[in-house]
Amino acid sequence: MSGKLYICPTPIGNLEDMTYRTVRILNEVDVIAAEDTRHSIKLLNHFEISKPLTSYHEHNKGSKGGYLIDKLLDGENIALISDAGMPGISDPGEDVIKQAIENNIEIEVLPGATASVTALVGSGLETSKFVFEGFLDRDKKVRRNQLEEVKEERRTIIFYESPHRLKETLKDMLKILGNRKIAVNRELTKKYQEVIRQDIETVINIFNEKDVKGEFVLIVEGFTGEKTIQNSYDDLNEREYVLALIENGMDKKDAIKAVCKDRKLKKDVVYKQVLDL
């Protein structure tokens, strides 16, 4: 009988955010797989947890993933932890979780600290619908293309960013997304936690006057303007046009309205063609 893979979130800053359940599971498993064993040993020592520790990170996930799966298939229970927060979010934990599922290994995800949701809730921006983009690419051209892709995203957008790229990212956001509302979260739950709720231009001016330190979660207001209709729909008839817009995430009512405006048609002309939808 195979063992179980436990996904154990760790504090994103404040050690008091470690749950009783996570401490218990870490004390019960056979092996703990950690992103950085040097970092994690301090956490485990703090909670007096003494279990075999093995590294599992971006650079060894290919070989070490198979090693962990073999141990699980042999009946050992393994806890997966990251440096901070929920494993599997912007870290290699995603890969071993997929491998475990492919091998019919039971997985149990424990609830706990997550920087993205913590920042979102305190942002003051829309929380009913949001999208997580994680870290933007380091390459300037790729990063700008990524921002172009979410330029007309109506949901609140969550980004992670490192201190040495923050200023350039904010400048790219201002240029591509426009001067939207933003909540900049620095060092969440730690001693020097800071949340700045302003517009992007104001935040740029603030960080031009101070040193940039710590890890950042950026919560950006979704697009509130009128979406641009792509010219790639020109060869479609009105029915096909409406269907294409619906497939791209637009509801039927808005799709009909968009087609009417683009083709300069009355609503009933288009509506009759999509009555069966």
Description of the structure:
With 277 residues, the chain is an alpha/beta fold. 39% of the residues lie in helices and 17% in strands. It has a five-stranded parallel β-sheet, with helices on both faces. The chain has a five-stranded mixed β-sheet with strand order 6-7-10-8-9. α2 links the parallel β2 and β3. α7 runs antiparallel to α8 and α9 packs across α10. The longest helix has 13 residues. The N and C termini lie far apart (49 Å).
Characteristic terms for this protein:
277 residues, alpha/beta, 5-stranded parallel sheet, 5-stranded mixed sheet, 10 strands, globular
Query: What coarse outline follows from CA principal-axis ratios?
Result: globular
Residues in helix, %: 25-40%
**Roughly what fraction of the amino acids lie in strands?**
15-25%
Largest beta sheet: strand ordering = 3-2-4-1-5
Number of strands: 10
- The ordered H/E elements are EHEHEHEHEHEHEHEEHEHHH
Quote the average pLDDT: 93
| SS-based class | alpha/beta
Q: Which parts are unreliable, with pLDDT below 50 for 5 consecutive residues or more?
A: none
